[in-house]
Amino acid sequence: MGIEVGGLLGLIWLIIVIWAIVKVAKSGAGGFAKLIWILVLLFFPLVGLIAWFLFGPKG
């Protein structure tokens, strides 16, 4: 039972990170800023997602 829950949570987390990357890519931020945000989200998913929600490009 624990493996299924962990797998489901991992899938949800992956979907959230992919959603954040798509939002960054569609944002009005400059190309370099987009690249930095995407790299942060990929290499530091938890911290990157929190930082993106707080400081990331809006809109």
From TrEMBL:
A Pfam family reported for this protein in Swiss-Prot or TrEMBL: PLDc_N
Predominant location: membrane
Name assigned to this protein: PLDc N-terminal domain-containing protein
Superkingdom, natural source: Bacteria
Organism placement in taxonomy: Bacteria, Pseudomonadati, Pseudomonadota, Gammaproteobacteria, Oceanospirillales
Places the protein is found: Cell membrane
Start and end residues of each Cardiolipin synthase N-terminal domain: 15-57
Transmembrane regions listed in the UniProt entry: 6-24, 36-55
UniProt topology in membrane: Multi-pass membrane protein
Organism per entry: Halomonas alkaliantarctica
Record's keyword terms, sorted: Cell membrane, Membrane, Transmembrane, Transmembrane helix
